[in-house]
Amino acid sequence: MSAVKIWLKNYLVTFTDSISSITPTNVLEILILAFLVYNLLLWIKNTKAWTLLKGIMVLGICVSIVYILRMDTLIFLVSRAIDIAIMAALVIFQPELRRALEQLGEKQIVSSLIPIIDTNRDVSERFSDKTVNEIVKAASEMSKVKTGALIVVEQNIRLDEYERTGIVLDSVVTSQLLINIFEHNTPLHDGAVIIKGNRITSATCYLPLSDNMMLSKELGTRHRAGVGISEVTDSLTVIVSEETGKISVAYKGELKRNVTPDVLKEQLIILQNKSVTPKKFKFWKGWNKNEA
Questions:
Q1: 89: Cβ–Cβ under 8 A, 6 or more apart, which residues?
Q2: 3-state SS, residue 134
Q3: What is the pLDDT of residue 219?
Q4: pTM score, two decimals?
């Protein structure tokens, strides 16, 4: 017992000395590290990097065994392969790394800390109320007759590379034009329409398909394309199912299915004013991923 008491006493003395020597800089450093580690783990969990991490853990165990048993030949090969493995990981996960940097830029950390250089405060609405009403009306009408549609609304990240895959229109957004574009057997019905501001810039555009395994198996290419473009850009995508006529909305990799025209209008209005609202914005508050 005496040995335990001595150990506890020494431990408490050391702990007290450590606490007394902590400075505000140390506290700030700990908070920054905690923030970085938390966001790194969150990013790993929400991307294919989670699978990579599990593979790295298995390889780490194997490498540890190699070093413990002092297998010189394998140690030599491992030391030479580490650099190649890092380069391969950067190539394989280039889309995820690119999206992480884009999300960091979207947070506008500098402008929030220094309001004087916040350029977004002077930016006008992205599109007019008329455009919102026309999109909602078109989606509602196409939903009634089960006409498939895929409408992408651009935000900060430009969609020029996807516009180039389609046919240039540069037309005012109207419900009649959107309905006519997606009408069966018309030349422009296959693919996505991209809207920039108050104009339809391009039709029949090809979009990247999402490889999210959590999406319902009953969803087709149209829904996967809608989610895919929302994963790599900050755009919002309106999807009308050709099979069921239900309206879905994809934003930031999340899919909200079976939305009403009123809900769709609310989300477009929020998107419309995002550029002039510097406060923190939670678009999908209360929504779950892939909610039916």
A1: 52
A2: helix
A3: 85
A4: 0.59
